[in-house]
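Comment thread on ticket #2218

A.B. wrote:
> Attaching the input chain for the structure job we discussed in standup.
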Amino acid sequence: MMVGCLMKCLIFTICIVPCIRQTTAATHYITNVSGGLRKNDLIEWSGRANFARRPSFLVIKASKKTRFNDVRIYTLLRLSMMAARHKIVVKNGLSGREWSTRPTCVVGNTRIDRGKHFRMIIRVLPTSFMIYIGGRLVYVLPITSDLPAISEINHIAVYNARRTQKFRLLTDKDLGLELQDASCGRPSVDIKVPPFCPNPPAVDPNEIRIVGGKNAKPGKYPWQVSIRNRQIIRGRTPHSCGATLINSCYVLTAAHCVQSKIRSALDLITVRVGDYYNRDGHPYSQIETVEHSQDIEIERVFKHEAYAELPSPINDVALIKLRQCVSFGNFIRPACLPLGANQFSPATECGVTGWGAQSHNHMNPNDYPSCLQVAPVTIFPNQNCTNLLGNDFLSDSMLCAANEDSDTCWGDSGGPLMCQDPFSSRFTLWGITSWGIGCGNVQKPGIYTRVSSYVRWMYLKMKLHPLDEEFLDDVRSFRVLEHFCQSY
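C.D. wrote:
> Ran it. Output below, let me know if you need it in another format.
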């Protein structure tokens, strides 16, 4: 490059601009790491791999004081991506004297190849970096005790990566946008409440509803899901819990709605999407002008690992993977996911939907309404929730909401608390109906799982493979090593 520049200068009698050495190398930094990294932070590096044999590098560094108060720079991760050879080489150690954990890790030309697009995710854990390419785990690098902690990380960069498209620390907003569907949160029809809803045939006219609610318009809440029992106890309806469709293949609900993950137990329940009239065998079931209900088998359930039922449900969230992905239409459409912890503030009026009871004294599902109900609720400030509910309320993972005359109740568990964004008009799943003390008492508001606190957890389950429990099972069975190059 320098020769060419000199020749241009020689052509002219006066070189007005001095020659500058050109290079194809490119460096990209992540700048927002002044406070270090935390568990389950995710670094994204994507773009097109180099055509040349010269590798690209991803480097993570941190500082650590010695016992003599000297500051030393350590390389926690130095990853060389050799696209021409379809492999990566990983090193760490004292900066300038890094040692290679293994000579190479061949990941195959379907994941890394010259000029081809790649997407790498680095998952940060206190004891290791988990490296994923194309959503599959390819390398686990331990962070040994002699290295600085992840909270001391102060430098993240890629070098010789001219064709990098994205290099960033993924925020919860990034994760939510990736998980949700582009059509989320927007009902596509405006249908009046059908005349058969107030007093449907063969149902007690004094039937009870979601507390303080009213009949919802068909298609207004197309993300509403019903979890149903296959084996119906005599005299009871199959509906057991609510849930929310979040994309074509996944449903979100409360962990207490799916107590067991055993296959034989999962075969006893099913997921119904597109429903409105929640009764089977009645004249108004399956009317195509108000619903398009489909029963879907469950492929797998992911309950939060830290879910506990007592003294009050905590981490009350579960993700259901459908055996068959659904197609969207007027009555089947996903809700949007939260794009930040402060997207909706206290005092925001939101809404709850479900087929649950009107009073905590009515526990018989036969008394549940047949048509979907909706009721307005207002989000309370965290301090108000703590004052009313005591130490059972955990503000980082729960929210509470109610109105003077409306609340969720029996049969609504797992269903959505939806807030409408004032700018986009889209409906966002802000809470999951979890627990409460009675129903309809504004002094004891309903408790909801705070969905914004679990978007990252959902991403790990839906986008990165294998799952933690599967990886640990393989380690215990000696099918893979706990660290270094993986075979997934």
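A.B. wrote:
> Thanks. Noting for the ticket: The two ends are 42 Å apart (CA to CA).
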